[in-house]
Amino acid sequence: MNKRQKRKNIDKLLAKAERETAEDASRLAQTNDDGSVNRLTEVLAKRTNAYGQTEMIIRMDASIPEYLFDRLVDANGDLFGEFRLFDNRVITAQQRKFINALCRDIARYTGDTIDQVREHRKLEFIHDKGLPYFSTSELAKNCSVSLASQFISYIVDFCLDNDIGLAESPLNYVDDIKHYLIKCLWTRKCALCGKKGQVHHVDAVGAGRNRKKIDHTKHHLMCLCIGCHEESHKIGQQTFMRKHHVVGVIMNQEQYEKLNYKG
After folding, report:
1. Which residue of 31, 184, 229, 241 has the smallest Cβ count within 10 Å?
2. What are phi and psi of 261, to 5 degrees?
């Protein structure tokens, strides 16, 4: 290789390095208000150390200059960051089935088609959550399992808020069971069958105690209709919960105030 060719190759390498440096600088300029910097990373390897902690080797989409490491360390010379894993799984066939079933229930109530209901609910969900547009189609591959789970819970909430009867109990397909059980308490819908319900104490309040004066945030609650409530007493609370795969929930003060329950 002659000197001219070598020089040309060197110039190409320098130009490439200059472009990469400029790209890094552009990414570096996109910092948060608190001075921290976000990086998209790929996990290359992981292991568990002797203390049971996970150690990982990661590759970032852009390098971080040494001076930034020095700037962000604490007084002890330690550097800390936050690591968040993305859900790379694509919506499952079962989740699509649940979404369509819920939209069919709403369609019977509104008179719209299933496709119209699904699109309306999705656009509202996207707007409320500030999300980019996504499709539940298996071909689009832009809806993760986690996003689909949130969308299902969102549709269930819509049905509870609007007194729309469901053909199947959401207990069979919602992932966030506690959120669903609390929503049932707020809307006074039986968590099992969806009928009009009332607040039920899973752990007994105790004979002679004033329900209006006890701290209900320390008790497990669920919403049951009269029929389900009678069944729970007939077969016993523990047997009832095992049979229907349901549990009572403890609410914090803010959640309990929204319950508007006087005991």
Report:
1. 31
2. -110, 130
